Fold this sequence. Notes:
The chain has 332 residues and is an alpha/beta fold. The protein has a single domain (4-331), classed as NAD(P)-binding Rossmann-like Domain (Rossmann fold), CATH 3.40.50.720. It contains ten helices and seven strands. The protein has a seven-stranded parallel sheet, sandwiched between helices. Strand 2, helix 3 (58-71) and strand 3 form a beta-alpha-beta unit. Helix 1 (4-11) crosses helix 8, helix 2 (31-41) crosses helix 8 (254-266) and helix 5 (128-148) runs parallel beside helix 6. The radius of gyration is 19 Å and the shape is globular. The chain starts with a helix and ends with a helix.
Amino acid sequence: MVSDKEIQASxxxxxxxxxxxxxxxxxxxxxxxxxxxxxxxxxxxxxxxYLVGRKSSEERTHAFIxxxxxxxxxxxxxxxxxxxxxLAETKRVCETIKSKESRVDLLFLTTGYAPFGARRETAExxxxxxxxxxxxxxxxxxHLLPLLGEAEAPKVVSVLGGGMEWSTIDLDDLDxxxxxxxxxxxxxxxAVTMTTTTLEKLANNNPNVTFIHSLPGWVNTGNxxxxxxxxxxxxxxxxxxxLEPLIRLFAIGDEVSGQRHLFECTSAAFGGxxxxxxxxxxxxxxxxxxxxxxxxxxKCDCTLNAxxxxxxxxxxxxxxxxxxxxxxRPYL
Length: 332
């Protein structure tokens, strides 16, 4: 375990030189993304942050941006509206960023929620949570990889469930369209598994970029209610009586979560580039103390899930990548 004291010491070294100069936060208007944005701005470093969110979050996000400016006048936070459950909108947002920037140092991705209700598709025919937790995130990465390649220590951090992959996913139904296949118990592990297999491939193909798939632990963001159907009274009672009390009991604090994810975004502990790190180097998904994909848990330790990842690498990675390319091709 990386101690919170070590994390705080590392984050204290973030300055105009070591901070990501240009950062893109997708899902940063609430929850873990918002906590991490605040932690980054609070370092006092000169940073430019693109904060991507839905129209419905614009008013409260402008209030948040005003708060951030008061906290650190050197930080430039740019509100960027986009309904990124839609891949066409994701492409538009990416094109906007690419038209303004020549480099991106950090891409931080947290969109999504647990789908406790029935399957709901976007206008593009993709289930909403799968789009947010997987397809949108991968599309952002693919569009911004050229800009990440221009940075000195580029990082992509996807917050979902690194280390919690399953080897038993149905490779013939990656969109969970077969009758009865779409449930929260299938959808979440599938998104986690597809994310890890694809990020590992991207890491292998882009050795200059550090990729992190983060398991955040329990953070009381209120997001557990977002996936509820309005007429699902039984599940609503379950969330109210069981899940919410458990989250309140075991959740780590907001400040702790923000600092830990800031550490993931900036420390050379993962891949060797970033804020200097003199502790034990992180181990990537290939089991090596080198750059690549890191599966990082809520205590900032690297987890391998080695047996499962080996099976996925051999039997699933190619099929998942081919399927992903087929879905995303019209939006590249």
